[in-house]
Amino acid sequence: MFNFFGELKRDIGVKVDEFHIINISNKLLYVEGHKGLTALSSTLVAFKVKSGRVEVEGEGLYLKELTENTAKISGTIKRVESF
Hints:
Layout: H1 4-12, E1 20-24, E2 28-32, E3 36-40, E4 44-49, E5 52-66, E6 70-82
């Protein structure tokens, strides 16, 4: 799978070990840099990240793709919070 932020960091010589989130029209969410899935339901998807946790709340949520450190979540996304 193509790793957008990894390629960008490599091209400009930046080494950052954090996570990134791209939310596309509250219908598709791309998470890069997660450390594992901690919750999964049709209303909540949560991931462990280096600095804490990311929670995605919505309706009809499902994992479209999950790899070692990236995930795509589809559905109606109502809230994304990291803490």
